[in-house]
Specification:
Blueprint (H helix, E strand, L loop, with lengths): L24 H4 L9 H16 L2 H15 L6 E2 L2 E2 H5 L16 H10 L3 E5 L8 H16 L7 E4 L5 H10 L2 E2 L15 E5 L4 H10 L3 H4 L2 E6 L1 H7 L2 H7 L1 H6 L4 E4 L7 H4 L2 E5 L2 H6 L2 H5 L18 H9 L1
Length: 317
């Protein structure tokens, strides 16, 4: 049984697939985690980003991202301009500054695109795990590709230690202070959720928090393939434990990440999920009428870290 995490969090066993790549694990374990210098961890993150950017995996995935975010998705809008029109102008390399001579249209598009938000859950202990570090590196490239300012990216993992939080702050990301358990409502703002190798309960919570045609049509999820989740569980089990995942399957378009040998451990079973307005409107009304908050048994191995304070509230009341 895993020991309670510092600060009142309760941990559960990690997914088997999240293991350091041979050859890099030893380097990651050279020094005790608490003794590492923040600049060294940040340097490793930047090196991972640079390695990923020149890889075949990023080259293939960049094309998928371009396709997903530039196709006519009328349900994803910022102000009065479709996000597809906003992003079709964004072809700058990360190192390329926006020149003053750019047209007003491009400048306005960049301004509008920066209203697009990103939320990252469960990335793991990137100071000591090379897989988590590569996932963080991909997040940084994703933000650059879509021209989303880093401070518009909100990130949380209950396992982060002070060193990792410090590194994330230095990188310019916004570290959340509370465990939302995935229950974040986008409040009408177009949002990307980056949730690699998270437990199904976390996706189920997120869907419940945004269970409407309007909200779901304005968000995308980069995480575990819903189709594969469906294939691994009996229909009755999926419907009972994770009803929101089960009910959204027919309203989902899923684009799987490519697989390359170098990053197979890092992004296996990963896909981009979007919820087209036309598909959502085809779902029966009774699906939207179901609004019950998810409730999980304490005995279930959910691969989710629960907010301990929420768990003890009934005992105090």
């Amino acid at each position: 049984m895993a020991a309670p995490a510092v600060g009142g969090w309760r941990t559960v066993p990690k997914r088997r697939g999240r293991r350091p790549r041979p050859g890099r694990a030893a380097a990651d374990a050279e020094a005790p985690e608490g003794s590492r210098d923040g600049s060294a961890v940040r340097r490793r993150v930047c090196e991972a980003r640079d390695d990923l950017q020149i890889s075949d995996f990023w080259h293939l995935t960049e094309g998928i991202i371009q396709k997903c975010f530039t196709e006519p998705l009328e349900q994803l809008q910022v102000a009065t301009e479709p996000i597809s029109e906003v992003l079709e102008h964004l072809h700058l390399e990360p190192s390329q500054p926006v020149e003053a001579s750019n047209s007003n249209l491009r400048g306005d598009s960049l301004k509008r695109a920066r209203c697009f938000k990103c939320v990252c859950y469960g990335i793991g202990k990137f100071a000591s795990c090379v897989i988590a570090r590569n996932q963080l590196a991909f997040l940084l490239l994703l933000l650059e590709k879509l021209q989303i300012p880093r401070n518009h990216c909100y990130i949380f993992d209950p396992l982060f230690n002070e060193l990792e939080i410090s590194v994330l702050n230095t990188l310019g990301l916004t570290v959340l202070k509370e465990n939302e358990e995935g229950k974040r409502n986008i409040c009408g703002e177009p949002t990307i959720f980056y949730m690699i190798h998270c437990g199904t309960a976390l996706y189920n919570n997120l869907l419940w928090s945004n269970w409407s045609v309007d909200s779901l049509s304005k968000m995308m999820i980069i995480g575990n393939s819903f189709r594969r989740i469906e294939g691994k569980l009996l229909t009755r089990i999926l419907q009972k434990k994770y009803p929101y995942v089960a009910n959204i399957l027919k309203g989902t378009e899923e684009i799987e990440f490519p697989q390359t040998l170098q990053y197979m451990d890092v992004f296996n079973d990963t896909a981009i999920h979007r919820f087209p307005l036309r598909k959502l409107k085809e779902l029966p009304d009774e699906i939207w009428a179901f609004q019950e908050e998810p409730d999980y048994s304490e005995s279930e191995e959910l691969e989710i870290i629960r907010n301990q304070r929420k768990l003890i509230q009934p005992l105090l009341g």
